[in-house]
Amino acid sequence: MKVTIDGITVDVEPGTSILNAARQIGGDIVPPAMCYYSKLEGSGGKCRTCLVKVSKGSEKDPRPMPKLVASCRTTVMDGMEVQNITSPEVIEARKGVVEMLLINHPLDCPVCDQAGECHLQDLGYEHGAAKTRYEFDRRTFEKIDIGDKIQLHMTRCILCYRCVFTADQITNTRLHGILNRGDHSEISTYIQKAVDNDFSGNVIDVCPVGALTDKTFRFKNRVWFTKPVEAHRDCDKCCGKVTLWYKGEDVIRVTGRKDVYGEVEEFICNTCRFDKKKTADWTIEGPRKVSHKSVISANHYETMKPLPVVKTNPLLQEANKEQFERETRL
Amino acid sequence: MLRVENTEQAPVEFSAALIAKFDDIKSRYPEGKQKSALLPVLHLVQAEYGWVSAPAMDKVAEYLDILPIEVYEVATFYTMYFMRPQGKYVLEVCRTGPCCLVGAEKIMDYIEQQLGVKEGEVTADGLFSWRGVECLAACGFGPVLQIGPEYTFYENLTTQSVDTLIADLKAKANN
Amino acid sequence: MGRKLLLQHINAPGINTLDGYRQTGGYAAVEKALKTLSPDDVVEEVKKSGLRGRGGAGFPTGMKWSFLAKPEGVPRYLVCNADESEPGTFKDRYLMTKIPHLLIEGMIVASYALGANTSYIYVRGEMMPQIRILEKAIAEAKNAGFLGKNILGTGYDLELYVQPGGGAYICGEETALLESLEGKRGNPRIKPPFPAIAGLYGCPTVVNNVESIAAVVPIINEGGDEYAKIGIGRSTGTKLISASGNINKPGVYEIELGVPVEEFIYSDEYCGGIANGKRLKAVVAGGSSVPILPANLILKTINNESRLMSYESLSDGGFATGSMMGSGGFIVFDEDQCIVRNTWNFARFYHHESCGQCSPCREGTGWMEKVLHRLEYGHGKMSDMDLLVDVSKKIEGNTICPLGDAAAWPVASAIRHFRDEFEWHVTNAAEATTRNYGLANYADPLPKVEKTEA
């Protein structure tokens, strides 16, 4: 099937969504997605950031669609023509959605562990207005403790439901869910209950914002001062393929390996994520490829070759020293 | 999260009569779709206990063979289920536009004044609470209020009819 | 006096019982359909009748039925939407209370037409009395052989159940209703797939409003062609109008579509004029979500023609000068009513009822409510009106389900037509908390429009 997005035509399998067709093309024409997650069935359609304009329905029925559609949940038809960044209407609507997502989102990026890898931060930067028009108190929630592994900041949540789908589809039981309704909806367990089972840590990786973060990594370091390295181990529960995040010579965080759209390639178990924080636990594959646009590349990470994590490596020591000096100077 | 720690959460055991009613409801749906019974079953639980406690929800989950969180999600979404104890009679007054055109706001003020409690609170004798609710689909007969668990409607309310209603309910409770 | 098809026998003694209903010719449509018509014939009659969905959207019922997928070996469902929650609408409650067998008869005929063997009537939970009435009526019908196995010896089986909701306006949206019927939160589904392909339990499903189902009975009794003769243009048949607000005779009226709005408001057959000798200020013609119109625009279209109670005439002029038929919730405002306060009240309603699933509606409805609240309570700013219009635009059309539109339209239309009153709430903030703006020029004759060549 042929579909044209912002003037670029691509051939895709029947049943492909507009968003995934756009991802096959890649680049700037890919709509942003805050709630859709290709590995989670039923996800998508909720955040409305991926809205696009279908200017031609299909070869057979060329009528345009009357409203903007969620590209993540709309299947392509042969001959369909879609406008994303070439449509002012889409840009305007997306700006509106970003504004809606931000009016109640706390501006605590300086102390948020997600900062630097937060999709809402990126989206706000690209589409948000410099000033808010919202003059009321931001929504707050009572704090709830969901255990010693995962930190929940409900005020940051954008209700993408990804963590709910993850618990349903990846873990063996779901302990948390969305309670209440409307703008009072929140991720919660009815009575404070630890969300803890073999794969529960994956809710951290799927969260597009800082609502669910790794408690063991909390306030340890800004993500752009860490050094991501691909590694694996023999794990009897999961694929064992992870990204290790180093601060100096310490592994301070373990996550799944994320692709360019922020989705993990494969889900990992809690043992790999929380209990294996020594270099010796892992076989190091090499430095993680980091986009030059990412804040993570700001630490001159690519100068540290060969592998920066081998203790005796003088280059690494030198790099760490440099970094230390830079930090203390700042 | 709903704070429930300060509320007594007595263990719940459903009576055989109640279970029989549940069974009847469950039989209305195809095999394996027993979750459909959740809303009607919660209504029955509330009619029995006056509200829906966490242990009751856990029991419902067990009965329907679903996860407890699935029950919490549903019970907190719908406005009819009380997540904390209420007065014996909950006066639910419609507060939406058409009723307000014919004086619903005055009726709510009057009820607040007569009962001496704010919206959502319970009177000292445990008999009454009241709250404003959204449109009850009785706009032509407003102002209206309803009282569960039978959800009897009281239409074309006036301060006099509210007085009578409260007096009647008090008399009923004391008999 | 217009023809009555649904409420003709509403005052007959015992009409709420099976016997009383049968004495007025009840269940003739079941006999006729099951014994003399094929399911496709029934669908054809409904198509011919031109019946349009009475729940609000006005989509042709026969066409909706013909879209139902019919894969082999998969059950099909008919679900009646009795979640009547749109402010200003109370016709379904009235119908179910007074004449429950009409709905049940319609359900049997419609289920037969669609090939459904299990059907549900989803009634909003607050209507427990109506649920009890329906359950009693179903038991009566079953005893008389109109429900259950082998109905009237025709070999057709049907079980009919009543399902209560739990208190959520959003469950009137058909996919949210199906979610709720499956025992879940009332979050509307993302479409496609539409219920006709994958509805209840993933099976092909039709969801119809109470009044639409009830209308099937006279359509089968008299024939689709006869039904289509009533009404005007594409607005065929009769419609139940729920009349409320500041009128002498609030209540449910069955009208032949095409009655002039002016006649509906002022004639003794219907609303009987504005209560307490006041003057008409505004009307919300189709339930709270449709645009509000000032007195002059509800009585006359922009071309100075008499506005009629029909789908087409009520929407004449688009949203600039028209409104919608909606669910027929006709709310009348007299000169003492404050449009700002009412708009805030409606905005609060939609804020309260938003399911919270998609961001524009979840966040936008609350935002609009807060701004309107400050306007109503004397803390508004001149820029608030533009802000409200802008926020409403950012919600409208960008949400999963029509609740976003329903929340946006009343706000946008109130500012469109009553901007003076909103501005007065800013410039005369203190005064606005003690008295109302009054009628102003909202009932003045419309200026002559100059014909502009398109």
From TrEMBL, chain A:
Record-linked PROSITE patterns: 2FE2S_FER_2, 4FE4S_HC3
Xref: Gene3D superfamilies: 3.10.20.740, 3.30.70.20
Residue ranges occupied by any 2Fe-2S ferredoxin-type domain in the UniProt entry: 1-88
Pfam families xref list: Fer2_4 (PF13510), Fer4_Nqo3 (PF22117), NADH-G_4Fe-4S_3 (PF10588)
InterPro entries according to UniProt: 2Fe-2S_ferredoxin-like_sf (IPR036010), 2Fe-2S_ferredoxin-type (IPR001041), NADH_UbQ_OxRdtase_ferredoxin (IPR054351), NADH_UbQ_OxRdtase_Gsu_4Fe4S-bd (IPR019574), Prok_molybdopt-oxidoreductase (IPR050123)
Keyword tags: 4Fe-4S, Iron, Iron-sulfur, Metal-binding
Superkingdom as given in the UniProt entry: Bacteria
Limits of the 4Fe-4S His(Cys)3-ligated-type domain: 89-128
Ligase is among the record's keywords: no
Name of protein: 2Fe-2S iron-sulfur cluster-binding protein
Organism of this sequence: Mucilaginibacter defluvii
